[in-house]
Amino acid sequence: xxxxxxxxxxxxxxxxxxxxxxxxxxxxxxxxxxxxxxxxxxxxxxxxxxxxxxxxxxxxxxxxxxxxxxxxxxxxxxxxxxxxxxxxxxxxxxxxxxxxxxxxxxxxxxxxxxxxxxxxxxxxxxxxxxxxxxxxxxxxxxxxxxxxxxxxxxxxxxxxxxxxxxxxxxxxxxxxxxxxxxxxxxxxxxxxxxxxxxxxxxxxxxxxxxxxxxxxxxxxxxxxxxxxxxxxxxxxxxxxxxxxxxxxxxxxxxxxxxxxxxxxxxxxxxxxxxxxxxxxxxxxxxxxxxxxxxxxxxxxxxxxxxxxxxxxxxxxxxxxxxxxxxxxxxxxxxxxxxxxxxxx
Length: 344
Description:
Number of helices: 15
Helix content: 55-70%
Number of strands: 0
Mean pLDDT: 75
Protein name: CCHC-type domain-containing protein
Largest sheet: none
Region (Disordered): 313-344
Distance between the termini: 119 Å
Number of domains: 4
Organism: Zootermopsis nevadensis (Dampwood termite)
Domain CCHC-type: 299-313
GO molecular function: nucleic acid binding; zinc ion binding
């Protein structure tokens, strides 16, 4: 697709298009145009064909320079809107692909399916018709038939969701799920606070929780993991879902700071030199005062300067003759026999 139309943008048009394509604006018009051309080269491959739009616009015979400018502006607007819409559709399509397939009509599987889809739908990136068109491929059987009915008729996500609840969630099952997924749903030790809040709030909305909002917020606070509640000691108690999500952001920042400090502490301790361990040898043994051991040879290690019971070395099995080893008093067996004979 030619990019000459970008060179004809005014300053106001260039800034508007830069905001739509998430391109940082520059100080001059030429700088903004250059950034727009670079961005356009990246997204040009995923744009839908605009040949039909160009043919229709070319049929308009410009009678003046002003008319020619209007044609260029209309073409720029069509290309810009198409690029933004295409990128939004791709983002939603990638998110929907991460949702597990719904291949049965088990109420619990349907509830998990709706909770994950609600998080994507709340981004408001595509229309309800396009969203239902993307999720129909993730379903089968009766659920796919219900989606098809809404695609042909009036595509509304809220109405479709309500029909699923009315069809597969009788009152008894709905009450049981309200208890297990909302009121008695405890945060896991490795579960992020924001993910936990989104899952509980989504389940409460889908299952039709009818209680007051402050009561639900208080119940969620009671079900938080103890490691998370420790960050809430000096915070004001939230009374609404919005305040609860704001508190989750504050907790996430505190956790990130604490992890950074722990990492810095470990790096500091690992960089400290380890103390040197000096091995003890026979020559380092201090003898008793008034007793010279410089001429004695220890029969355990072969060193001099100490007796066997003060020897710091450990004999190795098989390398020392047991007959040459002394007893607890430092006397060899042969010397012990001589002493015993002398006493007799």
